[in-house]
Amino acid sequence: MSKHDNTAAVKIENISFHYGDRYVLDRINFEIPNGAFMGIVGPNGSGKSTLIKCILGLLKPQSGKVSFFGIPLSRFKNWGEVGYVSQKANSFNTAFPATVYEVVSMGLFGKVGLFRFLTKKHKQKILEAIETVGMTNFIHRNIGELSGGQQQRVFIARALVSDPRLLILDEPTVGVDAASVSNFYEMLKSLNEEKGLTLLLVTHDVGVMSDYVTHVACLNKQLHFHGNTKEFKEISKEGFSQMYGHHVHVLEHHH
Ligand SMILES: Nc1ncnc2c1ncn2[C@@H]1O[C@H](COP(=O)(O)OP(=O)(O)OP(=O)(O)O)[C@@H](O)[C@H]1O
What we know:
By secondary structure, this protein is of the alpha/beta class.
């Protein structure tokens, strides 16, 4: 594969961020290994979105640094390698009259008006991305006529058309009904395992998520734990709650 194989996909070094005099992130250090599927969990207000914004360079931390594939954020230019699916509610007006095919094609150009310039190769990419997320049967359906989980799949396909090496997802299961959540994670897992895509997922959903990810980071202003899923599961539930606060409970899958 690529020459970056031993380099972390994302390296976060000593990141601190405060809004005014209010600390939201306190000296955060961790790496997302290339090829990992990492879940970041934390209660409301624990700084998850702020951390994602610092990673993407949308917010500038007061201290610390971020690098992608070994390149410092300040010099990183290959944004096509990094896909981002923000919280659904903020990302798209689903009343907008666009089909699945049209929404996914925006991942190539960002604009609907450029449809007529799509080459055969572009069209192939779009069809492939739609197939990867299992939405081929809905290709001409309007985005507004899909369920929350189906819409999220389409937004992921939109992020996949530019062939990213890393995909960052902020609360992708919000609005996805409980029965579809496992299917949704299953799809992410196969993107990770079969396509070798590195995934970073932010969620409240500790229980179900931990059955699919390879690594976990627990955030509550500070990083309370980071490691592989086996280590995460070995932490006793009580010990974990004490360490991390009462907001988060590790639930077994069948609950
Ligand atoms: N623009 C802002 N100005 C001031 N404070 C902010 C701003 N944005 C967020 N905060 C505060 O920073 C803290 C962390 O917010 P953040 O959105 O990063 O948390 P989160 O873990 O993503 O929360 P949630 O799970 O509820 O989305 C919260 O206390 C929030 O109120």
